[in-house]
Every structure is written in C-alpha cells, then in structure tokens.
Design a protein that fits this description.
Layout: H1 2-20, H2 34-40, E1 49-53, E2 56-61, E3 69-74, E4 83-84, H3 85-93, E5 100-104, H4 122-133, E6 138-142, E7 152-154, E8 159-161, E9 175-177, E10 180-183, H5 184-194, H6 201-220, E11 227-230, H7 233-237
Parallel strand pairs: 1-5, 5-6
Antiparallel strand pairs: 2-3, 3-4, 6-11, 7-10, 8-9
Length: about 260
C-alpha cells in the first residue's frame, strides 16, 4: 500500500544521509514486521534511534477480566501473533538513557480508500500507554488522529488519460486522474529529512503538522492532525540529524513502487 511506498523511500533517504554523513547517521536497518523489530532491536548502541512504523492496529483486552485494553500491532502474516504496544515500549526502555523517536503511520482494521483510518480512540490509548509506561527519552509522532485518516499524496500536475482508439471521436474527452504516490504524511516526512528539518523531534513535528494539515485541507477538504507525545521536553529537543541537507535526487521512472 501507500505506507509501504513511504517506507521504501524513507529507507533510500536514510541510506543517502548515511553516505553523506557517516559519523552522524548509521546504516539503516529494515524490519518486515513489529515482531522482527522487537526481536532484533538492540539496547546496547549508544545512539539516538528513529523508527518509522506502519502497521494495522487493533484493541485487545490485556487482563483476564477484560477490564483493561491495550493497543496491538497486527502482523501482515495471519499465522504470526500480534505484538502489544506495551512490549515494544519495553524494548525501547532498554535503550535508556538514549533518545528514541517512534513515528507511527497506522491503519485500522478496515482502512478503505486511504491509509490510517483511526475511527477508534487509538490516538488517546497510545498516548495513555506512552505516558503510563513513562519510557525515558521516548517521543512518539502520529500521522492522524481520531476519526481521521492518513490521506494519499498525489502530484498537483494531473495525468491525462485518453483512449487511443477514440481519439478521433467527437465524443471522446480526456479524463484527469490523480496518481496516488505514497501518503501526504510520508511525503512531508521525506522532505523534513531531505531539507534539514530533522534537528529534533519537535522540529519534525512542527514541519509535518503545518504542511500535512494545509495540504489535506486544500486538496481533500478534510482534516488530518499530526500529533506528538513525549515523556519530557528534553526528549523532544534532543539532537537527531543536524546540518545535513540532501540534494534533490533526480526522479526515475521506476521510482514509484507498487508495493502491497
């Protein structure tokens, strides 16, 4: 889907940042599921960590009396067990005192047209779990709020579609179709890293919040609210990537990946 396109492009940007400034950005790593991330994340590295996580989420009882509910990440493989947000937070806690930025672009059980349909109170529950666990150094940025979705991005220059067999017909007309190209959140997240707007979690949030809200309102007439929650002001202001701007990469015809 469109969030998979985001992940693929973010990986390429991270690789370019690593090549340009190896002393500041280590070689990026890809995990294909939250379970892989939980199993493979290291708590020993003395570095800040940025995680972009896209997954389908649901709510699940976390006690025998069904009185407590937690957020869980579902695996793309139905045969594999979901992973509780609490388990991921436990792994991140082991990195203390290092800073971790967790960027979430989530989908509900029935995402429909766009990604990230959070018709339930996922944002509030995620914020509550983050605050309850109080993981030092952790900041979380989310792509969309309650009853919102993470809308698809498309280039403002439309593509004209014509039927060659009917070009000479007086009734034939060009039909304009937008070509979806990742999500709005993913598009501006890429720009933040490319344009040197990733000095810290707060600067990334400020860049995303304004641009995503304005773009979605002007193109879809809808609301998409990027949100942030952190254990402390120091975590939000902790240095991430400073002094690096990437030259614009020439767009290649095969760059738009039809990921599933």
């Amino acid at each position: 889907g469109n969030t998979a396109i985001n992940a693929s492009r973010l990986l390429k940007v991270a690789e370019r940042l690593h090549e340009q400034e190896r002393s500041q950005v280590v070689e990026p790593v890809t995990f294909h599921s939250v379970a892989e991330l939980v199993a493979g994340a290291s708590g020993s590295e003395d570095k800040s960590l940025i995680i972009y996580l896209t997954a389908e989420v649901s709510l699940v009882p976390t006690d025998s009396n069904d009185t407590k509910v937690g957020v869980q990440f579902l695996s793309p493989d139905p045969a594999k067990n979901p992973v509780l947000l609490a388990n991921l937070l436990s792994v991140i806690r082991k990195r203390e005192p290092m800073r971790t930025l967790l960027i979430l672009e989530l989908t509900g059980r029935n995402p429909g047209l766009a990604s990230g349909v959070l018709a339930d109170d996922f944002r509030e529950r995620i914020e509550k779990e983050v605050r309850t666990n109080n993981v030092p150094g952790l900041t979380v940025i989310g792509a969309s709020g309650r009853n919102e979705r993470s809308w698809e991005y498309f280039d403002d220059a439309p593509v004209a579609a014509t039927n060659d067999s009917e070009v000479d017909s007086p009734t034939a007309a060009d039909v304009i179709f937008p070509e979806f190209d990742g999500t709005v959140f993913g598009h501006f997240l890429l720009r933040a890293f490319e344009e040197g707007k990733a000095e810290n979690a707060l600067s990334i949030y400020a860049f995303l919040s304004q641009h995503v809200q304005d773009w979605v309102k002007s193109h879809y007439g809808c609301r998409q609210t990027v949100w942030i929650v952190s254990g402390s002001k120091d975590a939000k202001l902790s240095k991430l990537i400073t002094g690096i701007k990437l030259p614009k990469a020439a767009e290649k015809s095969g760059d738009k990946v039809a990921a599933v």
